[in-house]
# Entry
Amino acid sequence: MDELEKITDNDSCCSINSERKSHHSPEVKKNLTSRLNRIEGQIRGIKGLIEKDTYCDDVITQISAVQSALNGVSKILLEGHLKHCIVERVQEGDQEVIDELLTTIKRLMK
# Structure
């Protein structure tokens, strides 16, 4: 089991009274929060590089690293969403969730 599977295995999300919410385990929340805190620091670092007139290629390299880190967060969320939210809703007979998933994937692939 890889890291992504391990941290999303106990995740679930569901619809309660038509209010959609995610329910992530404390471990997953901690992991996501930690990743986002690092990304936030990277963004501040990029701002500092621009303020110091750092060579453009170096700034672009840092921006690429942030984009990659954000993609990592998205992968964790998408895996948990697929394994739990989508599966639950399909099992409940909600076929519209497939269109929602396709829209989500299209957004991620931009």
About this structure: The mean pLDDT is 87. The radius of gyration is 17 Å.
